[in-house]
């Protein structure tokens, strides 16, 4: 399966990249950058440096729309204090990846490798129109049809805009992380973070997408990672594994402060990738969703009679199976990346 990830890279987004690259049944053909945990510019930079460390520097990373619908040049997006607390000021738990990699290389007694300076120019991260990302979707949908799945794990502005511009994109299979149907939100009593960033765009995706799967807090908060898992990555002794352990431990610490009752951190974004590849991990409720202006995902009362249900909402998950899959897949990837 060809996959495009639309990320606000972010710690769990970073793990979504690793899950995808570690999956033999997936081919990551590109990443588009959205905003949420961080700005588009920072997220694009984070995605690029992680792809390099993981051994895939040539996968394209294309900046998307950098602010919600209706916001003009005078209102740039900036992450909330809560996002910066959970993901760190740079989105990767404050870990400066290049410095980390250089220090590791020195420890190993080698010269700094190419990966030590793997961040490429971020100049193109400044495209606020996001048009090349939308054209990337259009071309991929035309080229790959049903073999393609788009996995958005941040604000849905770029995906919605692409659907508006190119009708073909409305027929793409979309498996998104976002929303909460049967549980409270995580930024308000009813709203989940990704949906709340641009409720209008999310509403557009639910109304116009013909094949949308929602992987929301209903299931992602049932799938947890703990320090016992990141310990295994450290023990593996690879640079990539140790780097990811460092980044994810920050996130686990933040979650211990904000949601101590969970006992770990919710594997939001990697679960969306996993469901894209293996829908049998979850059980679905099919319905027609809308998003209200408070960012709540809820059934659309005006489409109750419609026999066609456009959204498949994941409501139950085999958490044990998923976490096992994650450990195997990212473990293999870290081993390969070295
Ligand atoms: C979602 O919000 C972001 O913080 C995470 O990366 C995830 O995509 C969880 O609500
Ligand atoms: Ca995300």
β-strand amount: 15-25%
Beta-strand segment tally: 12
Number of helices: 13
Radius of gyration: 19 Å
Q: What is the molecular shape?
A: globular
- Element order, helices and strands? EHEHEHHHEHEHHEHEHHEHEEEEH
Strand order of the largest sheet: 3-2-1-4-5-6-12-9
State the major sheet: 8 strands, mixed
Distance between the termini: 25 Å
* Uncertain residue segments: 112-125
The bound ligands are:
beta-D-ribofuranose, calcium ion
Multimeric organization: single chain
Q: How much helical structure, as a percent, in the residues?
A: 40-55%
Structural class: alpha/beta
Average pLDDT value?
92
Descriptive report:
By secondary structure, this protein is α/β, with parallel strands linked by helices. It has 13 helices and 12 strands. α1 (11-21) links the parallel β1 (2-7) and β2. α1 (11-21) crosses α11 (239-258), α6 crosses α8 and α10 runs antiparallel to α11. The chain is globular and about 65 Å long. It starts with a strand and ends with a helix. Residues 112-125 have low confidence and may be disordered. Calcium ion is lined by residues 8, 10, 12-13, 36-37, 153-154, 269.
Question: Topology, pairings included?
Answer:
Layout: E1 2-7, H1 11-21, E2 27-33, H2 40-53, E3 61-63, H3 81-87, H4 97-107, H5 131-144, E4 148-152, H6 157-165, E5 173-177, H7 193-197, H8 199-208, E6 212-215, H9 217-220, E7 224-225, H10 227-236, H11 239-258, E8 265-266, H12 268-277, E9 282-287, E10 289-291, E11 297-299, E12 311-317, H13 319-337
Parallel strand pairs: 1-2, 1-4, 2-3, 4-5, 5-6, 6-12
Antiparallel strand pairs: 7-8, 9-12, 10-11
Bound molecules: beta-D-ribofuranose and calcium ion.
């Amino acid at each position: 399966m060809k996959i495009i990830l639309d990320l606000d890279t972010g710690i769990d987004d970073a793990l979504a990249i690793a899950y995808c690259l570690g999956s033999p049944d997936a081919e990551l053909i590109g990443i588009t950058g959205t905003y949420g945990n961080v700005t588009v510019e920072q997220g694009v930079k984070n995605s690029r440096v992680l792809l390099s460390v993981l051994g895939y520097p040539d996968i394209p990373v294309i900046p998307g729309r950098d602010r919600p619908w209706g916001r003009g040049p005078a209102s740039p997006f900036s992450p909330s204090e809560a996002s910066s607390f959970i993901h760190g000021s740079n989105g990767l738990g404050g870990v400066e990846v290049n410095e980390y990699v250089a220090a590791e290389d020195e420890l190993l007694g080698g010269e700094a490798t190419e990966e030590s300076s793997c961040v490429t120019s971020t100049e193109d991260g400044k495209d606020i129109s996001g048009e090349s990302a939308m054209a990337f979707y259009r071309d991929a949908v035309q080229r790959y049809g049903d073999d393609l799945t788009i996995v958005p794990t941040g604000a849905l502005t770029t995906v919605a805009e692409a659907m508006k511009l190119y009708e073909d994109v409305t027929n793409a299979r979309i498996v998104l992380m976002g929303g909460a149907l049967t549980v409270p939100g995580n930024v308000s009593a009813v709203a989940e973070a990704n949906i709340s960033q641009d409720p209008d765009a999310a509403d557009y995706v639910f109304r116009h997408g013909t094949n949308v799967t929602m992987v929301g807090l209903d299931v992602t908060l049932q799938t947890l990672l703990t320090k016992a898992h990141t310990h295994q990555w450290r023990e593996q002794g690879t640079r990539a594994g140790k780097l990811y352990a460092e980044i994810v431990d920050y996130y686990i610490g933040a979650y211990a402060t904000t949601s101590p009752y969970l006992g770990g951190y919710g594997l939001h974004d990697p679960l969306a990738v996993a469901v894209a590849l293996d829908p049998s991990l979850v059980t679905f409720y099919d319905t027609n969703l809308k998003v209200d202006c408070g960012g709540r995902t809820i059934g659309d009362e005006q489409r109750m009679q419609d026999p066609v249900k456009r959204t498949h909402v994941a409501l139950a998950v085999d958490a044990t199976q998923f976490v096992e899959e994650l450990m195997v897949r990212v473990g293999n990837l870290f081993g390969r990346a070295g």
